[in-house]
Each structure stands twice: as structure tokens, then as C-alpha cells.
Amino acid sequence: MVWAGASGWSDIESRTPVSTATRFRIGSTAKALTGTALARLVQSGRMDLDTPIANYLDPLPNGEWAQITPRQLASHMAGLPDYKENRDWLGLYHTLALRNHFDSMVEALDVFDDNPLLYRPGSRFHYTSFHTVLLGATMASAAQKNYLQLMQEQVFDPAGMTATIPSPLNGDHEKGIATFYKSNGLFGAKHRLREWRPVDLSHRLPGGGFVSTPSDLVKLGSRYLDTDFISAETREIFWTPQKLANGEANPQHYALGWRYREMEIPQLGVLRHANHGGVSRGSQSWLMVLPDYEMSVAVNINRKTEVFWDFGSVALEIVQAFVQGRSRGDCARDL
Q1: Residue 5 to residue 261: CA distance in whole angstroms
Q2: What is the reported pTM?
Q3: Which residue of 166, 175, 224, 275 sits 20 to 30 Å from the alpha carbon of 36, by its own alpha carbon?
């Protein structure tokens, strides 16, 4: 770690500033965390990406899931619906009310297990956190551990991620967790922010239920540059965008728990990076790993911007500053 910075307020009412230790909801960036645990289980031989999940999770609450594979879940190609498409009416209520607590990922399957599949697994791409929740339950069953225990042993402890925990119901600046805000969408003197109501995100924990710090997320990203943690072969598998039935890469360049893209950056040229963004109640998150520069960068905020990249583009400014600094011999390896 060579640099961490903070700007703004953790809590406006108490005028508590953000610090580099402030924790934020990370939304779907959690999928990269779960994907990392899957990579470690595959690397150690405890799971196979193409073995049907019925071999790991028994009993299955929905018979249509029997032939779904971990690869299809991790790449969002298994056929599960999104929150708004959920036809499990009680489950739909839970995802709107956000009041019920689920102690395990197997329990959380109740939220969507009455749905028929949208398509034959592996034939199409459809991004939904329900894929990652089912993946988390499958991984926990395969490892014969609670999902959180599995994450602690396979990801948080070896990566030194001491600040990453399940999201509490709301912020608590006295405990270093930012207050989460919602904007009225107006500008100038009419702009107002209000605190988000308490919400329980335990039903989506593997795909969007953690709080963390940018520094913890950078630690995770930097471990992908360490072949003792993730081998080069495993990293290649998990950073390769998955192909549709027609042989073309899916439209989001989604790999396994990560997106992987190449983009043209002024003054830098083509930038290859694995990434995952996240949007949650009153929060946004962005993590990217740049293997060509051996660099990991993360940014977080405790509100939502109207356009996500208005926030996420800050990471590219940081990348550009440090890459140019490195060319002058100013920088070490990670951010």
C-alpha cells in the first residue's frame, strides 16, 4: 500500500469527516470477493467449475437447478431472475422491505427458489445477484462451512482484510461505518441529502451485502498479483470473459466474479483491467486490478451519483497519476 486518501463527510449531522478507515457498503463489488473464494476452492480441488451444483448442495430447493454449474453461476449464465423479475412473491416482498434477517445462504435461497429458470443454463447472460447467492450457498455446502466462515478463511484472513464485515442495518460513524445518504436529485441551493432507512442485506450477502474500506479492497486486488494466493493459471480462468452459446463473449465481458476489459486511456494507451463495481443503499464502490502495472485501485462513496462513472472515473485519475509517477521512479507497487 503506497497511498490512501479521504475527502468529505462520514456523517454530516455530527460533522464527522471520512477517514481512510471509514467503511462503506460495497454493493456488487462483493461478487469479486465471493469469486475469489471460489477461485481458491477450485485451485485446491475442492470444487470443479463444471460439476453440477446438485453434487455440492443437497437437497436443492428447486429441481430446475440440478444441472446448473458453478461456472454458470459465477458468470451470470445460469438463468435465474433479477430482483424485479422475482415471481416468488414473498421473496419479492423481502427484497423490497429489507427487514428480514437470514442466518445462512441456504436460508436466503427462500427469497427466489420458487422461480422457473428464464433460459437453459449456459445459453444466455443475465446479470443478477441471485446467481451469486446460490453460488455462495453451494460453496458453503461444498466446504462444509458457514459462508462467512469460508470467506474469513479463504479470503479475508489471507488477504489481511480486517475491515470487511456484513453490512449493518445502517451507518454508525462512531464505529467507523459511514452514514449512507440518498439525494433529492436537485442541484445548487435546492440540493438535499437524507439518511437511508435501516435495511437488512443478509439475503444478498455474497453478491452485495458487505461493508469494507478502499484499502481492504485494494488488498484483495493486490493478492491477485501474488501467485502464492491465486496461481497464474487460476487467475487466467477467472479473468477470461465467458462465451455465449453462439461463441461470442457476453456483452458485459463478465468472467467469473469479475469483469475484464481493455480500454483506451489518454496518455496511457490500452489499459487492461479486471474490475467490479457496486451500487447499494446509499453507497457506491469500484475496484480494479491492472496486471500490466501490478497495481490495484479502489474507491468508495456514501451516496449514489446519477451516473455511476462520474464517481468511478476517479479511479482512472488515480491510476494515471501513479502510472506517470512510476515512469519517473516515484511509486512502488500498489495503491
Answers
A1: 26
A2: 0.95
A3: 175
CA-to-CA distance for 133 and 131, rounded, in angstroms?
Answer: 6
Widest Cα–Cα separation across the chain: 59
What SS3 state is found at 165? strand
Name residues whose C-beta falls within 8 Å of residue 99's C-beta, 6 or more positions apart in sequence.
200
Q: For 63-95, what is each residue's pLDDT tens digit?
A: 999 999 999 999 999 999 999 999 999 999 999
Q: What is the pLDDT of residues 255-299, one digit of tens each?
A: 999 999 998 887 788 899 999 999 999 999 999 999 999 999 999
Cell numbers for 206: 455474497
- According to DSSP, residue 93 is labeled H
Place of cell 515512469: 327
Q: Is the CB of residue 79 less than 8 Å from the CB of residue 115?
A: no
Q: Give the span between the Cα atoms of 203 and 205, in whole angstroms.
A: 6
CB proximity list for 63: less than 8 A, separation 6 or greater: none
- Whether 333 has a pLDDT exceeding 50, the answer reads no
Q: Which residues pair with 24 in a beta bridge?
A: 212
Q: Which helix (H) or strand (E) holds 220?
A: helix 214-223
Paired sense of beta strands 9-11 and 181-183, if any: unpaired
In this predicted structure, what is the pLDDT of residue 108?
97
Q: What is the DSSP letter of 233?
A: H
Q: Which of 66, 61, 70, 77 is nearest to 120 (CA)?
A: 77
